[in-house]
Amino acid sequence: MAVGKNNICHCGLSGKDYGNCCGRYHTGVKDTEKSPLEVLMTRYSAFCEGKADYLLKTWHKDFRPDISAKKFSREIKNGGKWLKLQVLGVWLNEDRTRAMIKYELTFRDAGGVCRSICISSFVYEDGKWFYTDEVDSADNNQLPGELDSKDSVLRELAAIGIKA
Ligand SMILES: [Zn+2]
């Protein structure tokens, strides 16, 4: 899938083009280690690019689906088109080993354009951040307030060298 006309990376977070943003992670030039936000943004872009190998690599082994990269890539290409990522809040525990990120995903499938609020969970292990699974947001009262904090997003963007 081609990057949009204005050449801004799919994730839309850095203002840079794909090759200088998420593309560096997908080719292994840059590794994800500083913030779970790197994992979220690069996985979003990997879905846009059909990079199944990267999605499996950044998925924690205990949660990763048992599927080949080839088959997974085909499933992604046959699925809906991801249009926009908007990060709403980032929560990290004190020792930065667990994280949750709340975001709004805009996508288009057979039914038209939809928006969905998601919360993804991440864990830091062996010097790397991994995506684990989705958090059930039904019980919103139990979730950390940072998940609705713009400041928490700016802080994590700064941690990965992005000035918003
Ligand atoms: Zn990007």
Automatic annotation (TrEMBL):
Gene3D superfamilies per record: 3.10.450.50
Domain YchJ-like middle NTF2-like: 36-133
Pfam families: YchJ_M-like (PF17775)
Alphabetical list of InterPro entries matching this protein: NTF2-like_dom_sf, YchJ-like_M
Protein known as: SEC-C motif-containing protein
Organism name: Ruminobacter amylophilus
